[in-house]
Amino acid sequence: xxxxxxxxxxxxxxxxxxxxxxxxxxxxxxxxxxxxxxxxxxxxxxxxxxxxxxxxxxxxxxxxxxxxxxxxxxxxxxxxxxxxxxxxxxxxxxxxxxxxxxxxxxxxxxxxxxxxxxxxxxxxxxxxxxxxxxxxxxxxxxxxxxxxxxxxxxxxxxxxxxxxxxxxxxxxxxxxxxxxxxxxxxxxxxxxxxxxxxxxxxxxxxxxxxxxxxxxxxxxxx
Amino acid sequence: xxxxxxxxxxxxxxxxxxxxxxxxxxxxxxxxxxxxxxxxxxxxxxxxxxxxxxxxxxxxxxxxxxxxxxxxxxxxxxxxxxxxxxxxxxxxxxxxxxxxxxxxxxxxxxxxxxxx
Lengths: 222, 116
Description:
The complex is a heterodimer.
Chain A: E1 2-6, H1 9-16, E2 21-27, H2 30-33, H3 39-55, E3 61-67, H4 73-76, E4 88-91, H5 95-104, E5 109-112, E6 114-124, E7 127-132, H6 148-151, E8 168-169, E9 172-176, H7 178-188
Chain B: H1 22-30, E1 36-40, H2 51-68, E2 76-80, H3 86-103, H4 107-115
Parallel strand pairs in B: 1-2
């Protein structure tokens, strides 16, 4: 899932304090799972903002909605008939949702309510960590299902660097060395000989470095 | 026991303090409550294992938010006691009432009164 973190309430208030009618829009997908922008968080933010504005003596109307997804036309269309009544929208979706909302409703002020962080997993409740950088050319087949692009600080492709100590990365003692994990798993799978194969130079043009990306699938396109 | 405690308190019964949501606390303040306190079982004695620990976290979250929006985090508090401690329940009610009385009414009520 896309992992996001809540923006501090005061930061959000600062963005929208000049508006008197605001919609807070949550998203039922990734940000709900990582407890940053789902229906619950929409309710908490709306209640907090109402209290702030009331305390300031500013009559401000704050409505709440949580869409199934903010990254698809069909769900964002649900706002078509009501969006014009709002002076501003705070979207608690990831950066993708915020942008799609802004693209779709060109004349509406849209503000982000979360900091979008990475694609990752829920290690335990309240702990999320990165697993994929969307490099566009998956190499997990050669690395025992552990991604050195997202989990190695240097994104190395042929084994660990000299900074790997007792299975940990030199940038933090809390961070596992991705290559140590890969070697351990290859050993467990009886495929350690694959470690000897030199990985060719990676084609980074499919990564973000190659500019904004797009997937076009003619087989499903309408 | 016929214990006396302040009649300003409105008791809302829940099956376990783990049922108390952050939104319940915030909405109480939004609607004009001067203070909210959550009374749970002793820590480690939760019948549902972690209900009171969850409640404590939510109370802490509410505190942080109330501080940020100018209502005051001191207006919300978590207490723990066992079900046999009636006198302590009354003590907590007196303590909280005293504290909230000292702090005065929820500032939102006053601000909205002026705005109206």
